[in-house]
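[step 3/7] fold_predict: job queued, chain A
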Amino acid sequence: MIFDLIFMQAVSLPDATAPHNTSIGATLMHQLVSGWYIYVPQILMSIISVYVIIDRWRATSKALKGDVNFTTRLRDQIYAGKIDQAKEMCRQENNPMGNIILKGLSRLGNPVKEIKKTIETVGRQETAKLEKNVIVLATIAGVAPVFGFLGTVFGVIIIFKDIADAGSLSISTVSEGLYLKMMSSAVGLIVFMIAHIGYNLLVSRINKVVNKMETTAMEFIDILEEPTK
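[step 4/7] structure written:
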């Protein structure tokens, strides 16, 4: 690769006039400022990823909490004819399971088939709420490496431009392009890992909530059908 050959030659041809006391922090800061058009989108994507992960993690944690004896208590209330108390118990749950059962209780008196359809509709709505912005993580996971590659391309362009302007080949000549190339690739991979791992974790947790909703809904329908058996 032409770039690799240039890099090897640059290493073997150090610039004696180049300063050696430049701090790493100052160099990185200069690079962040000069390559803002690559780093700003990457930083924004990382902030958005962290926000979505924290927000959806809290939402799924809330959804997974609840009384383990919820359906047992619900059955007792329904069999005792205390529908209002059963509805209040669902409100106190304050999670997707309570919401779908509350909607089902509001349809009591209708055929069980209609109640099932109502519960399924509410279940889809609750699932959509949990999945809010999760697709953003998948998008960022796909776009972040592209920005890293774009930084690599710009870095190579800068290297050739600096060599042409300086009329010589040295570490100081190609350093800015090298920094942009390597840092943009590294940052792009880091953002990709954050978004990709976060996406998979959230999908797994949402699936747990969905399974819990389905189980609760089935138990509720069983409660409604038991007296007629």
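[step 5/7] annotate
Residues 171-225 form the longest helix (55 residues).
Confidence is low (pLDDT under 50) at residues 1-22.
exit 0
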